[in-house]
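Sample entry (167 residues):
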Amino acid sequence: MRYLVRDLLPAFHGEAWVETEHRQKVIKVDRKLMRLRTTFHFVDARGEQVASIVKKALTLHHTILIKQNGEAIGRISKRRFRIFGDRFKVTLRDGRRLRVSGNLWDREFDITDNGTTLAHISRRWFSIRDAYAVDVMYEPDGLLLIILAVCVDHIIEDRKSEQLTDL
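Predicted structure, serialized as tokens:
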């Protein structure tokens, strides 16, 4: 199934909806900025929080914890230095290690598990400038794959803003 994720508005408090390809609102991504750690809440159409992500403060790598029902179910980290291998490291509570690869700056990348593509993320499908598509190929992990796409997007945008402030 294909989902549309609109980029969050740059404000003290931003929110965006994840919609199906038929424009049905599925998940609201609610960003809380005025906190010690950046937090995103994922709320379903009924208003119930289904997951959250929390950026860990004071880490060498950008690390984001993925939580459901208050328990960590996964972690995604961006390696600051790499010579070979993936730029992102995704570790799930069930022991799986997912791979994020592709053209990350243009939001053209895949999330794979042992060579099997679980999702493809792309800006190419939509004419809306600040949106990207998440094509979920393995529906049981649909929510997790959308969350990982939002995490990668947030880490990339964080890195871009760091580079701008270093000028």
